[in-house]
Write a structure and sequence with these properties.
By secondary structure, the protein is mainly alpha-helical. 64% of the residues lie in helices and 8% in strands. The longest helix is centred in the last third of the chain and has 42 residues, at 222-263.
């Protein structure tokens, strides 16, 4: 067991004190340094914003996404890269500035920084100005609520409302529902084109989606069923890409926080006024 020699000077008398290392009690989990977490979150969000703007400016990302459409794979890949880099850099800054030397402390601070950054990113992405994720989920949410509340009529109203700005009357919905129930596909398409100003391909897609979402996919056209299958595959791919990016950003945040604490240089001032670099920062409650 090694010892530490402490020198004190009181009233002109020097004393040497020998203290055993075992007499210092170090807490298993240090208290969190919120100032370091806030700094890391600020850096992470700033890096995320910088990379997003770079992606838009260089054409790697789309400036806007149509309501209800799934973003392209390239857009999601660039968003994932930005999420990974921002998570790593933010966690590194947090670990570097937390004032602790244990690798575990840096990893825990990195996880907290990652969690706050991810929550803020989700809030921004799903807000009114964040069309990337809101465009993915808004159409799904509206049609799901319509199925639960109104069956085929609710699906028709939700699908048409996504294409036009004006309110759809109950009479128009009843007319369309009757035409579809009687198998009058062409009449329903012509009715929507004449009354709602929709193109024929838009009206045809609404008819196919109504059949599929209301539980009668066999009545939809072959093109409509193929389009629905493609949409499901694209949505599944997008969800898996987002999931993988979030998991990888968590892993990189652990690495970044650990590296931040391991590479941070500490300056400890002695009683004589000198400074030594690279030492362990002495904290209240233990080394």
């Amino acid at each position: 067991m090694s010892t530490i020699q402490l020198e004190t000077a009181r009233a002109g008398t020097n004393r040497n004190t020998t203290v055993s290392e075992s007499s210092f009690k170090r807490p298993l989990l240090s208290s969190i340094r919120w100032s370091a977490v806030i700094a890391g979150v600020a850096v992470g969000i700033s890096v995320q914003l910088l990379l997003t703007l770079f992606g838009i400016a260089s054409g790697l990302s789309m400036t806007s996404v149509q309501e209800g459409e799934v973003p392209g794979v390239g857009t999601l890949l660039w968003a994932g890269i930005a999420l990974l880099l921002s998570g790593f850099i933010g966690a590194y800054v947090t670990g570097y500035m937390c004032g602790l030397k244990r690798r575990t402390d840096g990893m825990l601070h990195g996880v907290v920084s990652w969690a706050v950054t991810t929550l803020l990113f989700v809030m921004l992405a799903t807000s009114a100005g964040g069309s990337l994720l809101s465009g993915v989920f808004s159409g799904v949410g509206s049609t799901s609520n319509a199925i639960a509340q109104g069956g085929a009529a609710g699906v028709l109203r939700a699908l048409i409302s996504n294409e036009i700005a004006s309110e759809v009357s109950n009479e128009a919905i009843r007319t369309l529902q009757q035409q579809l129930a009687n198998g009058q596909r062409d009449q329903a398409i012509a009715y929507m084109s004449a009354n709602f100003g929709l193109r024929r391909d838009q009206a045809s897609a609404i008819v196919d989606q109504t059949f599929i979402l209301s539980g009668s996919p066999e009545r939809a056209s072959v093109q409509g069923r193929e389009a629905a299958d493609r949409a499901i595959r694209n949505a599944s791919l997008a969800a898996w890409l987002v999931f993988a990016a979030v998991v990888l950003s968590l892993a990189l945040s652990l690495v970044g926080g650990a590296l931040g604490t391991m590479t941070a240089k500490r300056t400890v001032w002695s009683e004589e006024g000198g400074a030594s670099h690279g030492g362990v920062l002495v904290e209240s409650g233990g080394v």
